[in-house]
Amino acid sequence: MLNPNLSAQEQSVLNAVQSEHLTSFEILKKVENVSMILSLYNILDQLNNKGVIKSYMKQDLKYHYAA
After folding, report:
1. Taxonomically, which superkingdom (predicted)?
2. Mean per-residue pLDDT over the chain, rounded
3. 3-state SS record for the chain
4. What mean pLDDT comes out for the span 4-25?
5. Which of the residues 18, 32, 46, 62 could staple to 66 if both were Cys, CB 3.0 to 4.6 A apart?
């Protein structure tokens, strides 16, 4: 799903979580254009604020998925 309101990095993260629920570290390993975990956290926050992704905690790990 291509969303014109998202940056390239945001779109890459969204694509990574569309097929399965992933932790931040798993997303970082799948996405090539985000190299630092702090940058990924900012992108996840932006996507969450836009209502594009949701998150939940399971066994002390935070998982993210496409809303």
Report:
1. Bacteria
2. 93
3. CCCCCCCHHHHHHHHHHHCCCEEHHHHHHHCCCCCCHHHHHHHHHHHHHCCCEEEEEECCEEEEEEC
4. 93
5. 18
pTM over 0.85: yes
Could you tell me the strand order of the sheet in which 61-66 lies? 22-23, 61-66, 53-58
Residue 33 identity? N
**In which residue are the tokens 């390239």 written?**
8
Provide the sign of the torsion angle of the four alpha carbons 14, 40, 44, 7, taken in this order.
negative
Whole-number Å distance between alpha carbons of 17 and 14: 5
